């Protein structure tokens, strides 16, 4: 996969040299380049912003440097996906990460100040699949933090990036549930013991314990996810746990009663 990131602070993306993402780059599993938007300016001050039409606070990123930068990443016959981090975008999720991990080329446009001139987004739609994307309902100073999160979420799904691909199967959000709690040695620590079932060696009981913990944790921390569960994938034991929290299966959907 090819990933290109455009930013006025390329050094902000230095963490992409580290850990599994950095190793994936070294191993040739990921072709990732960071581009300085100021390299595509034409004045001696390398200006990338100007005052907004219509008045208002802050500055707006100029369209021409962005168009030149984006054009430099186009190749004949290709239509890359352009991710524009924005609090006005679609909320990024695990399912979107899985979708993006199948793309050949992703381009990330890190806006700053009050954002990028909207005409850039309209122009880019002629050459890219444009997807404004948000990490959540809050505002950051720029797109770099969001890009770090999204690149890691996408890149770790590529074949060979994670050493044990089985670890991807049981993660939070993989099947609509949060991940179960995990423990390691020692079995007793500061007066607290791990759940006894994990020492039993009974794989079926351990699997059931972990599934129950997934359901409990999801109900307690993210009840909004419960209504989205695929009821066809829930068994009787699952439904019993959910009943303990006041959920009933009615007309093929889960409802919280009372």
From TrEMBL:
Keywords: Cytoplasm, Methyltransferase, S-adenosyl-L-methionine, Transferase, tRNA processing. GO terms for molecular function: tRNA (guanine(37)-N1)-methyltransferase activity. GO terms for biological process: tRNA N1-guanine methylation. It is an enzyme of class 2 (transferase). It holds the Pfam family tRNA_m1G_MT. It catalyses: guanosine(37) in tRNA + S-adenosyl-L-methionine = N(1)-methylguanosine(37) in tRNA + S-adenosyl-L-homocysteine + H(+). Homodimer. This is tRNA (guanine-N(1)-)-methyltransferase. It comes from Psychromicrobium lacuslunae.
């Amino acid at each position: 996969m090819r990933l290109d990131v455009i930013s006025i602070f390329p050094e902000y993306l230095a963490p992409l040299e580290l850990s599994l993402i950095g190793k994936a780059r070294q191993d040739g599993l990921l072709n990732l380049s960071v581009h300085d938007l100021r390299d595509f300016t034409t004045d001696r001050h390398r200006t990338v912003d100007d005052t907004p039409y219509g008045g208002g606070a802050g500055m707006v990123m100029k369209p021409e440097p962005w168009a030149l930068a984006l054009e430099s990443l186009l190749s004949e016959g290709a239509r890359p996906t352009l991710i524009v981090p924005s609090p006005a975008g679609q909320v990024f999720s695990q399912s979107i990460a899985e979708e993006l991990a199948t793309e050949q080329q992703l381009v990330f446009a890190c806006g700053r100040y009050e954002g990028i001139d909207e005409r850039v987004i309209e122009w880019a739609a002629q050459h890219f699949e444009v997807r404004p994307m948000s990490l959540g309902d809050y505002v950051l100073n720029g797109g770099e933090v969001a890009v770090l999160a999204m690149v890691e979420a996408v890149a770790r799904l590529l074949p060979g990036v994670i050493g044990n691909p089985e670890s991807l199967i049981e993660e939070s959000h993989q099947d609509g549930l949060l991940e179960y709690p995990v423990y390691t040695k020692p079995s007793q620590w500061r007066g607290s013991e791990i759940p006894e079932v994990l020492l039993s060696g009974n794989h079926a009981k351990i699997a059931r314990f972990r599934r129950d913990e997934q359901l409990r944790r999801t109900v307690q921390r993210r009840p909004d996810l419960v209504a989205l569960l695929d009821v066809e994938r829930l068994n009787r034991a699952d439904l019993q746990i959910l009943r303990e929290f006041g959920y009933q299966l009615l007309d093929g959907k889960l409802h919280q009663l009372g």
